[in-house]
Each structure stands twice: as C-alpha cells, then as structure tokens.
Design goal:
The complex is a heterodimer.
Chain A lengths: L24 E10 L2 E11 L4 E5 L6 H8 L9 E9 L2 E2 L7 H7 E4 L11 H12 L6 H11 L3 H4 L12 H13 L5 E5 L7 H14 L4 E5 L3 H7 L2 E6 L7 E7 H6 L4 H7 L5
Parallel strand pairs in A: 3-8, 3-9, 6-7, 7-8
Antiparallel strand pairs in A: 1-2, 1-4, 4-5, 9-10
Chain B lengths: L1 H6 L17 H39 L9 E2 L5 E2 L2 H32 L2 H16 L2 H26 L17 H25 L3 H9 L4 H30 L2 H6 L18 H8 L5 H31 L9
Antiparallel strand pairs in B: 1-2
The chains are: A alpha/beta, B mainly alpha.
Chain lengths: 276, 328
Amino acid sequence: MDLPVTLDHGDLVDPPDAAPVVPTLEARRVGAWFGDHQILEDIDLAMAPNTVTAIIGPSGCGKSTFLRVLNRMHELVPGASLAGEVLLDGTDVYGRGIRPSSTRLHIGMVFQKPNPFPTMSIRENVLSGLKLAGIRRPDHDGLVEQCLTRAGLWNEVKDRLGRPGGALSGGQQQRLCIARSLAVEPRVLLMDEPCSALDPSSTRRIEETIRELGTEVTIVIVTHNMHQAARISDVTAFFLGDQDRPGTIVECGPTTELFSTPNDPRTEDYIQGRFG
Amino acid sequence: MVSALADAPVAPSPERRDLHDTPTVGDRVFRTVVTGAAWSVLVVLGLIGTFLSLQAWPALHDAGRHFFTVFEWDPDGTGRFGIAAVLAGTVTIALLALVLALPVSLGTALFINEYAPKRLYGALTMLIDLLAAIPSLIFGMWGLTYLQPHLEGTSRWLSDHVGFVPIFSTNRPVFGSSMFVCGLVVALMIVPIITSVTREVLSQAPRATCEAALALGGSRWGMIRRVLLPYGRSGIVGASMLGLGRALGETIAIALILSFNYRITAHVLEPGGGSIAGLIANSFPEAGDAGRHALVAAGLALFVLTLAVNTVARIVVRRSAPSRQVVL
C-alpha cells in the first residue's frame, strides 16, 4: 500500500512539542503480561492535553493491550499482570486505594465493535454512565442533547430518543457509544479501532467527530488504518512486537514528521506497507 | 431503447423447477427411525393425557363442580371429595419453595459467573448438576429426620417475632410436619434447576456489553444490576417457572413430611396442609374403586397445572432475546 503523504490537519492545534506541556496521561516503563506471556515491554508514552495520539502497528503488537492498561481494563482478564505506572494528571492510576471504577470514569473507552446496551433506549444509553457510577446530575435532557451533538448523532436521533439503541446502524451505534462515554465527562477517551467494523461513510463521520472532540478531550486511538492515523492524529506512536517478542515503541513523534520523515527504517517499511 | 426492448422477441422466462433429493436407503431408514423416536414422545404424552381423562371421568362426572370446591377427601365413604384444599396446599408449598429458592439460585448463578475463580467455576457448575440428580426421596428423608427437628427453633422464632405477618402466625405452639418445612425442602430441590438455567442465560450476555459498563466507570454490582440482570430478566423468570413446575409436582418428600388435613390455611408454620401429589402417594394403595378414580382425577388436575406452568416457562425462556441459543 502506498501512503500519500498529504496530511490534512485542518484546524487542529499545533503539535504538542511546540511548548512543554504537562501530559494528561503518561505511561512510564509499562510492561504487560497474560500469565507468563509478555505482551508489552518498557513503554513510555506521554499524551498531552487535548491532543489526538494514534497508535499504529501490526496485529499482535500489543496496541489494544496498551490501551486497556491505560484505563485498568487489562486486569479484567484472568492472569493479567503489569509493570510500570500510568499517571493521570500526575497520579498513578494503579496506586494504592485508587479504585479501577474511578479511573475508568476519568478515562473512557470506545470499543472496536459498537456495544450499546441492548436493553436501554438511546437516551438511557447516553445516561447509563451516570447511573452505573451513581452520579447525580440535573438537566438530563440537556446532557443527552449535548453529548449526542458532540458525537455527531443528535440530528439523526433527536426524534426517537426512546427507541432502543440496538436498532441504529453500526456507525450510529458507534457514535452513540462515543456519546455515552462523553456523558461522564472523561479527561481522556481511548478508542480501540473504532472504525474497523464500519463502512467508509460511517468511518468518515466518526473521524470528523474525533477531530472535533480532539480539541476538548485527550484522545488515544488505536488504528490499523494509516491514512486514518495521518488524517486525525497530532502524535503517532509506532508499536512493534509479535508472538515471540513483547511489543515496544519503535518510534513516536508528531504525526506529520513520523509519516514524512521517519527516523527508523522499520517505521518507514511499515508505513510504506512493506510488512504488517 | 425501451421500445426496441419491448419489440424484441422475448424468450419466456423458464418455469420454476422442483428441487428434489434422492436419499439413499440408509438415509431413509435413519430418517424413519429418528422421526419415530421424536413422535413417540408425543404419543406417550398423549397416552398419559388420554388415560388420565378416561380414568378420571367417572369421578369428575360424580363430583361435578364440587370437585374444585369441596374441602374433604372421602370418595370411598361419604362420597364427598374435592381438591380445593390440596390444590391450595400444592400451590402454597410451591410458591413458598420458589420464594426461598430464587434468591439463593440467583446469588449462586451470579457468584459462579461473575466472582468465582476459574478453578471453582467448573467444580461449582458440576456440583449444582449433581445436586439436581439427588433423588427426591433422599431430600425427603433428610428433611424429615434432620432438617425438621432443627427447624423447630426457627419456626418458633418466626412465630414469636414476625407473627404479625399472617402467614407466620400460629394458633398453637406446635411446629413441624408443616408446609413451611415442605417448602424449604422443595426449595432445596429446585435450587439446582433454577441456578443452572439462570447461569446459562446470564452467561449468554455478550462480554463486550459487560465490559462497556465497566469501562464507563461502573462497579461490578452496578454492571450486574444495570446491564446483566435486565438482559437476563425474562430468562430468570422462565427459570423460576421451570422450578415452580417441579415444585408443584413434588411428591415423596412432601408425603413423608407433611401431616395431611383438608383445610385451606395460611398458617404455614403449623402442622397440616395438603398437596395433590402427596395425597395421591399416601392414599392410592388403600383406595377403593371410587377412590382410585377420584385420585386419578386429582392427578389429571396436577398434570394440566404442571404442563401449563412448564409450557409458559419454556415460552418465556425462549422469548428472552439473549438466550435464544439456550437448549433446555
């Protein structure tokens, strides 16, 4: 696959290396295991406030595992273990006395396959995070409208908020899941290949949503699609690893630079489509 | 273009053809055998229904509508008999059993699915199935000789402290041989079926949906309450009704424990009560001709009742969207 190096960033903010900023989320020397099998080794990655960080790399390099380490979903798998630390605004989310549920409240997640709650209506899906976390908030109607608008779904569903969320199309379901994540006002939004189950026009719609949200929320997105990474992210991290070697970061930098002048020959090979 | 097409000689579209298969002899024989096996189930059910109806007819004809209103059982003597009291007793014991069994079953199913470590998961699932395989006679003997004496204190305490609730009030301080003891023993017997169906239904909930709830900052309890239980609700209702069906038909444990009388009573802690299956088991050996017809009529009523409850239960379980694949 040839990657045209025409990077259209539109009105995105400048790459974060312009000025030193305190990262919203920072992984320090993160390693991850399932049982004895090491998936990730010594990952350092800082995510600056209100930027979009793309994680690219071949299948099986540990991208999704890294994402799940960031909001403590990793530990839900039996036998999972971890090294290093993950700092959210400077506080280790794996620190003593910190509940996984409160970490996940601040670091939301959108999954590969759209997974709205099938027993709930569109409106209930948006508000489900508040119910689940026991948060009281006035003006539910306003919140529902605001979140669905930010997720780019409001105009399509405003007349049928009481209908089941599962009745929407795949792309709409995924935007509903984004709206659901936004309702609890997360600091960070993790997205694990959010478009891989969607058709091209839904993908474009979600990419627009991500670019709009990127100015308000810190976003980390795993993607297989390098065009997508180039289109929507400010910073890109290239992961490499396979069955025998745990995943590590080969190269990380501003997206424009990484795609136009990669430092590592392996990065160049990957983005030129020579492997992976 | 259009007119050119219209003018062109159009070949008639080919006729539809029958699609047929020519099975081998082996195929045909096998098909006949399995079809026969499947039909035989229906035939047996039909034969049972027919037998019960025919045998019950003389008694039902004699008693007429009194069959459902009379509180006595003396078909061989005075000729007065009716299932009002035993039917009420059957339903009381079954409901009591269900109320006691449901929370235990739900808790066990949730523990196995959501909290149990991997090693316990297999062991517990197997133990629950083993529990279901214990003959009801064993439950009955254990209930009679062990559980009943040990329950006397509990019954007394309930009567003394929550006696203001009508079902726990008693007229005299005698406990045991009561519908309460029966209900508890039957509850133990239906816990396995309710647990295993509930567990199966809840395990069908997609992991992705449960993870979504946790990823939103929900606690495990929040996830169970807001996502898992609503998802499995109709399956749980169906499982309960399957348990209820079993409880209605339970015979030997009740025949052993309960001291029979023919009154409708809400005082479940006191000795006495009735049950159709228990009545049949206790009276059939000594019954005369009229008595046997009357007992078969009672059996027919039980047959219809359990069939109805089980049918509804299965429809409910099948309708529950998440568990369409559950085979019962």
